[in-house]
Amino acid sequence: MTTRAKVALLFGGRSGEHEVSLRSGASVAQALAARHEVLPVLVDKAGRWLLQDGPAPQASGGTPVFLAPTPGDLGRLRRTADGGEMARPDVYFPVLHGTFGEDGTVQGLLELAAVAYVGAGVVASAAAMDKEIMKALFAHAGLPQGPYRVLRGRDGAEEALILGELGLPLFVKPANLGSSVAVTKVKRAEDLGRALDLAFAYDRKAMVETAIDAREIEVSVLGN
């Protein structure tokens, strides 16, 4: 008889993409349940880890647990109230979107705990989350990309220069967020300020890019 692997599914999270992660978590759990034992762990908007009865993740509820960042604890999920063992997953599967989940932070915790986990490591996750760093790496590798500028606050003079340099239409977005949250297509100069205010509501950096009329292709990569 084959033992089913216990998979701790981390979903939810503290970022502005919390609701997107809830949907992703439900989809991944459904796919995993046929072959593995799913242990849903909701990360709520306050950052608490809540272990739920599987396999279907829920948008709320669960027992508060924690993962100790020490290899000797073998990746156990322990009850926050008294430290008692609740589960010992074989592997962790982060389905967290955005900051505090997809940006290398949770990956760092999993590395400290010396547990097996799904997805990219700390460096790749952190670099890919920050669009300014990612674009710098693209440029260093010689990959073509559209014109862009990064702002770290509202600056009327710099915004006027950007309009003159990049033209219209523009895309404005937080530098460290995904799932199209707070992304604005700016078609008129007078709308740029409103778009920047929205981006800065989510991040300290805003990415402003020239809109490119092109075919969009998404590629999934499986590897080790």
Work out the strand percent. 15-25%
Low-confidence stretches: none
CATH topology tier name of the largest domain: Rossmann fold
Number of strands: 11
Specify the CATH class of the largest domain: Alpha Beta
Counted by DSSP, the helix tally is 6
Q: Give the CA-based shape.
A: elongated
Strand ordering within the main sheet: 6-5-4-3-2-1-7
Give the radius of gyration: 20 Å
**Helix content estimate:** 25-40%
| Cα separation of the termini | 27 Å
SSE class: alpha+beta
The biggest beta sheet is recorded as: 7 strands, mixed
CATH architecture of the largest domain: 3-Layer(aba) Sandwich
Give the tally of structural domains: 2
For the residues shown, what is the average pLDDT?
95
* N-to-C SSE string, H for helix and E for strand: EHEEEEEEHHHEHEEHE
What is the secondary structure topology, with strand pairs?
Elements: E1 6-12, H1 18-32, E2 37-43, E3 49-51, E4 63-67, E5 77-79, E6 85-87, E7 91-94, H2 105-112, H3 122-129, H4 131-140, E8 148-151, H5 156-166, E9 170-174, E10 184-186, H6 192-200, E11 206-210
